[in-house]
Specification:
four-stranded antiparallel beta sheet, Alpha-Beta Plaits, about 200 residues, elongated, alpha+beta, Ribosomal Protein S5, domain 2
């Protein structure tokens, strides 16, 4: 069974946690791919260049199948893992959560660090609006003029909205469809002789 719905956050949020002079600033962002993740990390490291650590975790894909947790110099599993744990506890994906630490001069110890990063991450997520979204495949039908009626009937039967269309030497119609319906539409397109181009977008 294809899962094509997932939970993420509607908009960026922030959180703050303080412990023994150290400040932990949390930043949560909805994201769609790893490039978006890298761009946001680069911006945060540039803006908070004087911070000691930039720990983070992210999950991508409808089932969160692509993920990473990074401690950025903190003791192993004390930064990224507790941040990731908060994403898992709320079953969120397509999300990046970064916690920026300003060291206060007093060591917190392993358990103290885990609690601090977890608490900062939770503070950001507690302020977020969690929404359910549908993963869609963007499909472009390529066909000849004499296949027009068959293609239009397929679009109507499957209730597919036309996003873009052009009728030059070759006819092209772009539409979006729920991921779980894609195999059926592809099979029907093949039966009428249409070629398709498909790209998956989890948004």
């Amino acid at each position: 069974m294809i899962i094509d719905t997932y939970k993420t956050i509607e908009a960026p949020t922030t959180g703050l946690y303080k412990e023994k002079g150290s400040k932990f600033l949390a930043f949560a962002y909805p994201v769609n791919d790893e490039k978006h993740v890298k761009d946001l990390l680069k911006e945060l490291k540039k803006e908070y260049f004087d911070a000691r650590h930039h720990c983070y975790a992210y999950r991508l894909g409808t089932a969160g199948e692509l993920w990473r947790a990074n401690d950025d110099g903190e003791p192993s599993s004390t930064g990224g893992k507790p941040i990731l744990g908060q994403l898992l506890s709320k079953a969120l994906t397509n999300i990046l959560l970064v916690v920026v630490r300003y060291f206060g001069g007093i060591q917190l110890g392993v358990s103290g660090l885990i609690n601090a990063y977890r608490s900062a991450a939770a503070a950001a997520l507690d302020k977020a609006q969690i929404v359910e979204k549908t993963a869609k495949d963007y499909i472009t039908f390529l066909f000849r003029y004499n296949q027009m009626n068959d293609v239009m009937k397929l679009l109507k039967d499957e209730q597919l909205e036309i996003l873009h269309q052009s009728f030059d030497m070759e006819c092209r119609i772009k539409t979006a469809i729920r991921k779980k319906s894609t195999p059926t539409v592809i099979e029907k397109a093949k039966k009428i002789g249409a070629t398709i181009e498909c790209s998956i977008m989890n948004k």
